[in-house]
Task: structure prediction
Amino acid sequence: MNAVVEEHHDHDHKPTGIGRWLFSTNHKDIGSMYLWFAFTMFFIGGALALLIRAELFQPGMQIVEPEFFNQLTTLHGLIMVFGVIMPAFVGLANWQLPMMIGAPDMALPRMNNWSFWLLPGAFGLLLASLVMSLMGLGSAPNFGWTFYAPLSTTYGPDSTDYFIFSVHLMGISSVMGAINVIATIMNLRAPGMTYMKMPIFVWTWFITAYLLIAVMPVLAGVVTMMLTDRNFGTSFFDAAGGGDPVMFQHVFWFFGHPEVYIMILPAFGIISSIVPTFSRKPLFGYSSMVYATASIAFLSFIVWAHHMFTTGMPVAGELFFMYSTMLIAIPTGVKVFNWISTMWRGALTFETPMLFAIAFIFLFTMGGFTGLMLCIAPADFQYHDTYFVVAHFHYVLVTGAAFSIMAAVYFWLPKWTGNMYDEKLGKLHFWLTCISANVLFFPMHFIGLAGMPRRIPDYALQFAEFNQIASVGAFVFGFSQLIFLYVVIKCVRGGEKATDKVWEGAHGLEFDLPSPAPFHSYTTPPVVK
Amino acid sequence: MSTASHGEYYIPEPSKWPIVGTAALTTSVIGAVNTIHAGEMSLLLPVGLLLIAYLFFGWFGSVIDESMAGKYSAQVDKSFRLGMMWFIFSEVMFFAAFFGALFYARVLSVPWLGGAGNNAATHEFLWPAFEAVWPLLTNPDNTKIAAPGEAMGAMGLPAINTAILLTSSVTLTWAHHALRAGNRLHLNLGLGITVLLGCLFLVFQVEEYIHAYSELGLTMSSGIYGSTFFLLTGFHGFHVTMGTTMLLVILIRCLKGHFTADKHFGFEGVAWYWHFVDVVWLGLYIFVYWL
Ligand code: HEM
Ligand SMILES: [Cu+2]
Result:
């Protein structure tokens, strides 16, 4: 039996042709597919965003119809959340987790491939509705990425039903992916790697996987209720039958708030790997990082209604959700403190991954602070549904989650490809991205505080300047990502050879493997001391 | 099989099943939407469902073959266990969404529509005639959404079904003990009875639905009571169907002589699933039928 295994699985025996990708059971190939999928979606979602910003460049209506504008914001949000950030993190998990814990692959390799391939199916459905809409055949989903009832039930276009099933497919994909992560981490760690010796990236993904398993089924539940409300006469979200449209928001945000942590916990793990490497110091407060991550995950289940302060909740509810939300700032603060303490008196160098990591620490923290402003219930009555919220979540998601993904790609690309990326271009990409992101999102705080509502294609004259600044930032940001694409392709195709350790201060099992890492990382488990 | 827990690793060969699975699910959902929209069966739906059946037979078939060939180490076995456990947990959360909707309606939205809390004005302006009692036999707007004539009682069929499911858990455990003791006769007997009880449950469930639709006027579209009733019991019934099918497969495998006293994850995974379905039913019985 062993002989058979070895025969088929000696190092670097890769299947060839398209079958290598369609039938893959290899975590690296599947990881690459996830990452390329996310990258592709990033450009599609980005193109929609640029259309939005082009329309908002001036007051008045210029480029798109209001109906189409709604479809743009909806699809932009859905694509970025479900098609970019989440798959990119799963791609990174696929590449890194087995290497980091000394495993040959993910625990359930076939299911892993299924998790990936469901995504093109799901987004095929979603994007098809956009294409149809462009051809004048009905409307794409137009109710915002939060698809509140009754906009999505009573008033949703026909494509809503396809959207519902597309969400189901994404959910199945995420749950299977999460189960795989958990099984891999619990079962495939190399001998000697106790839980408290796992790299922080592994820890954060472990906890993220639990969040996914806990809330993706709830999302499936809420879209199912939408489906039956729309087509089979149920009244979950219809007060005439004893239901409540606000109930939609409760169920949605019970998923939705943990979801935003699903999109940031792996980022915390990435930053916690990069900062020590380029500070040439071990991570400050490893165990407090683990506990902070776990507390954030726990708290994320009891704060959801901070998205609903203006729905007329009882005062006790407003207060509960206000205070519980504020609590999240404590473990988050622990993390920021630890990153800064890790850098303190370190021998710092500023390669591209470190630049993105430092930018993350600053800018994500800004997003955290605006979060704290928003969670003050009486203040949120003013901020809610304005551009201030848009600024908040773009700071945490773009300069937070997306920056961490870019940092991770620069950090591990040499390990994956065996080649160093072009540092000059990487730095250029960083500076353009970092500056333009701030030009793009910073003014949104002010126009939001001044009262500009979100998701509206036209606005009052006094908001014009700041909107123009934001739009300029948006186009610079968008086109800067082409540099990123170029750097990645160039690195995949060749370049200066990377050493096994890649970075002077690198630690971890993955940096003991050769660069590029062999097709099957380990056939027998390494021993961790 | 010398592969100890941490010896040589096992990785399956490249496999076509994930792609078949994607094609199956995507086809099915497009077919389902087309069917709903057109009001008549879209060809894609049966094609998709057939593909799903093909997927199940094929994928599980090859896993069974690999298992019988002794390819799975203790480590692979544990991965499967973990996978099944957390899959069941995800199912628990799926039901939690619908239980959440039920509690929300019963504790919050229905009383509020009746004026509870600070909602006197809501009540007065929207539907002043509405009275909040559960089960809802009059809806806030009875002209838009016809109310059910009668609620489903807890005695009779639902009580019998509770007894059936509880008994089936016992017979399944009996079968499991027999498997471990190497008593194949009791194993097959216990499993066979469990499958029969599962089928019986489903028959009664169908009967209950017919009763609800034709005699009580209780339908999916008769307000939030009917909505929660049918989605909760319906998804549960669907899970019983899946569970019974899986038990049947296990029974066939047992009759063929598969499984040994100490290696029988297939059996255990399905048993866990069945107990989960059982526990969900208890929740349903208490909160949907009884209280
Ligand atoms: C200290 C941490 C945080 C606090 C206190 C916080 C608080 C809030 C509050 C109160 C809102 C609702 C604002 C409104 O609609 O009026 C909000 C919105 C939002 N937050 Fe956060 N947040 C925090 C961190 C994060 C993180 C880490 C992410 C994602 C990575 C995130 C993503 C979002 C998103 C996407 C929305 C907008 C959802 C929508 O309505 O479309 N937040 N946040
Ligand atoms: Cu939130």
Summary: Chain A touches chain B through 85 residues (CB under 8 Å). Residues 148 and 249 of chain A are 7 Å apart (CA to CA).
